[in-house]
Amino acid sequence: MPDERSLIKRVGELSPADRPSGQALHRPLLLLWAVGQARKGRPRELHWSSIRDELGKLLGDFAAVTNPRQAALYPFWALQRDGLWEVKVPQGLPLTSARRRPTLSTLDSLDPLAGLPQRDHDELSQDPALAAQIAATLLIKYFNPLPTGLLQAVGLSDLLAGRVDTALRPQVGERYDHRKAIQSVYGGNGVMGITPLADGIITVYSDDKGPYADARVPGTDWIAYTGDGLSGDQKLTHGNKNMRLYQQQQRPLRYWHKPYGGRFSFETWAVIVQCRRRWGLGDDKLWRREYVWVLAPVPSPLKATWPEEVWDALAEDTGEVHDDSADVVPDEVVDDALGEAERYRRLAEAAERTSARRQERSKQATVERYLRSKAARDAVILRSRGRCENPGCLGHPDELTDAGKPLLQVDHVDDLSRGGPDVPEFMIALCPNCHAVKTFGQNRRHLVAVLLRTAKTLHRAFILQSSAEDHQLSG
């Protein structure tokens, strides 16, 4: 009797064992073959001997097993536990000493019938779209890139040739008003930001309203996506653990985005090309270390369609977590007993240490420069004393937000996306009006020169003040 959960959900929950050589492909391959048999109109149940020979050849060709006959036994028996397979055997069937499965000789002797549960077989036989979705899900998750000859070998060429990616649901561009609406159609969790849909493929959700500061990386189409965990230091558990696995296995995931006041849209497929750790404010307004997953959009989940720059980034990614939080310390974490100039000097030095590691010219370096030193920004805000640093400011230089914070934007005088240094000497705090003039104004080139001189002058003044304080203390 099949499980009452939907067929898509049961397939999505299939969890092959991880081995040093990769995931065990035995059960996914049997299931793919069974979908092909249903589409070809073969009987629902076949004898073990027929399944053994056909599945054994597939395992030899596409799973690199050395003993195909023996290897066929495991999925033939184990797929029952997933609610996706039935074996007709007499009661009292002798099992191995571990009582996990019968022996090969026992199955050869009894030659029992087996196949998909009746309801699943009927659905796959009668609904080509469902069959295509199930098969495509298995291919994307376990056989990506698609091995040559696999579709023909499992009897799915007519169903899926040239349309593996388009057989999946949802499709890129689909929109829904809210998360619960997505859940009602495609399953998954309606709350968590990192969660699989019913088919088991990880989906990440980004909402411009918050609570996370997700954003496109300037100068690229890549996405800086904040990890799982609202308060306290984030850990490599739950959603972050799944993201780590996807990074290591270079697996595609779905990226949904909701602009402020808009609807959730399945914006793109993406692959993780880097993971960083930085300081950020938690939901409790306290500083914590958080993960940032750098997502590179790809045209489809099929690896054969991914552009060269994505493969270059994946080759460059070592799989390590780049810990920016070691050198980059928010000003709230710095010892309050230090003088203002000394705090500034320490923050500036931390920013310079981090910047020194980011001189390579590559897309990965562009990302690293964007996910810049938190210390650099904090140093500039400290130096500004809450006022716009443009000497010719005509706006509201000391305006505050509702939270009592300075209404300032820290800007790289030489744009960061164009290689501007990520250190306080080349950065300045501007009110929104001056920032707009510097970015769009007719006289912006002249203003940039003024701001650059100002930033350097203010920086030197703080460094000299810090040195004077050190000299007084040592004297």
From TrEMBL:
CDD domains: HNHc. It comes from the Bacteria. SMART domains: HNHc (SM00507). Keywords: Endonuclease, Hydrolase, Nuclease. Residues 1-12 have a biased composition (Basic and acidic residues). The keyword Hydrolase applies. Residues 375-436 form the HNH nuclease domain. One of its GO terms (molecular function) is endonuclease activity. This is Type IV restriction endonuclease McrA. It comes from Streptomyces thinghirensis.
